[in-house]
Amino acid sequence: MNLILLFADDFIAPDRVRLRGRRLQHVRTVHRAGVGDTLCVGRIEGQIGQGTVLVCDDALLEMQVAFTSAPPPPLPLTLLLALPRPKVLKRVLITATSMGVKQIYLLNSYRVEKSYWSSPQLSAENLHDTLCLGLEQARDTLMPQIHLRPLFKPFVEDELPSLCAGKTAVVAHPGDVRSANVPVLEPGLLAVGPEGGFIPYELDKLQATGFQAISLGVRILRVEAAVPALLACLFPPSGA
Amino acid sequence: MNLILLFADDFIAPDRVRLRGRRLQHVRTVHRAGVGDTLCVGRIEGQIGQGTVLVCDDALLEMQVAFTSAPPPPLPLTLLLALPRPKVLKRVLITATSMGVKQIYLLNSYRVEKSYWSSPQLSAENLHDTLCLGLEQARDTLMPQIHLRPLFKPFVEDELPSLCAGKTAVVAHPGDVRSANVPVLEPGLLAVGPEGGFIPYELDKLQATGFQAISLGVRILRVEAAVPALLACLFPPSGA
After folding, report:
1. CATH of domain B4-69
2. Could you give the CA distance from residue A238 to residue B221 in angstroms, rounded to a whole number?
3. What is the ipTM, given to two decimal places?
4. What is the per-residue pLDDT for A206?
5. Across the strands, what pairs with A78?
6. Contact residues on chain B for A231, CB-CB shorter than 8 A
């Protein structure tokens, strides 16, 4: 937790917040903060700044807060992800969120196990908690949007063309070395298949919608490694 | 398991192997292979090829095997990793192995919890099993070497200078945007700190040994996302 994410309910005055539960525990056990210490805070969908600890005990954390700067810029990328198994989903969502992705479509695919769609991990509350972890990690405040698309064909045929309009769209196909890597840099879409990859029918459908197949090389990576590797390749850090 | 990794003990003839346990279970439940099916196999430290299933039942898997091609080229990079907590270590080792890293030094650092050094995850057997998962994922056969270095200062002072000789060495420092990203491409070293980063003393010691600080940007990533992102940045896929 590199930033304490604050919500409307946390405010007891315009410049004062009161926290309990997970965030209190984290500040006490990891930050080991005491009265007078300052911590990085951020208002959900708003600015980031500093909180000065006024009270920190077993029951509550109270801080005076001031917001001074914008959150880091989002990545101009929409991620289409074949729904991974629940544990992997959680890690990939944290990673994608911490890297700045704001639009994530979770897709069905032939190789996605049906049971994954009934995982509690997909409840609105659990998704929200997972995304908060990613935002707190990267000192961001802009909540990503998750779109569940349990039917592949209608999504690709009816919705995807307008999502793609005017954008670069690439699909990562493990082991496919025919295509060179294409830096997106402009607003784009990235599709990542399930373990085992998209089946040929799905790849054809995506390519017919304008997706270009790219590859990270002959080595096949797990989804949780492929996503950060692809994001880093497509949006290399520019330095300063 | 995109490749079934074979060891000397598995061979009952020069072209025949007999497997039980984890690999048998995986072939039965995930590949659902039957007699006559072919599977990708690789001989540890040797070539990859194909296995044709001769027997596959509850008790054993027997295959006729032929080896035809070299494993994918290793990444010419030595990874120095501040020891993460055991669960994260396992995932990062799988990722680094699947991306082709062959030399991994696990270091102490001020922010590494002492208890991590007594984790069963660090036993030779568990490390071996973890690395096998990474090799199987990436269809590789060349086992990485893991070096445990529970003392930071003697390692950096006595051993690191000769490891660095003639190589590009970079240390990833979260949030440090002063340095642009430097593609390594040639043989190199990459140091990745613990959650919270190396402390200034450690960073100074690494820089005094010739390490250049690089950053992935203002967003701070978890180690398990930072490692694949850094490897992908430093060794972008060339395509074909």
Report:
1. 2.40.240.20
2. 16
3. 0.93
4. 97
5. A103, A189
6. 229
